[in-house]
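Translate sequence into structure tokens.
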Amino acid sequence: MTQDIVFIEALKVDTVIGVYEWEKTIQQTLQFDVEMRTDTRQAAQIDDLSKTVDYAEVADDIVSLAKENQVELIETVAEMVAKKVLADYPVESIKIKLRKLGAVASTKSVGVIIERNKHSYE
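Result follows.
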């Protein structure tokens, strides 16, 4: 398995998310840390972005998914992101750490960490 990782750290998205009725009337901040396992050797050899993962495009996709799909659970958002990235980019596996900032009193954040690979959705 390839050991190269393209990552996005601390991507913040303000969106409507939550189980409780009051949460459905406000925006809350989600923070994504994403690690995408891929082979970067060819891109490095020929200095070509098209041969690797464009993290700017992935970040745009994450923002769109989080804003356009108003769901209740951060687990749902993390799963949507994993499916999209694995389907649309040359990524073997993905690790997503998704935090909901300030959601629980006396905490900095709460969240989930998921890991998926290409075979997770077959």
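Note: The beta strands are 5-15, 28-37, 93-101, 109-117.
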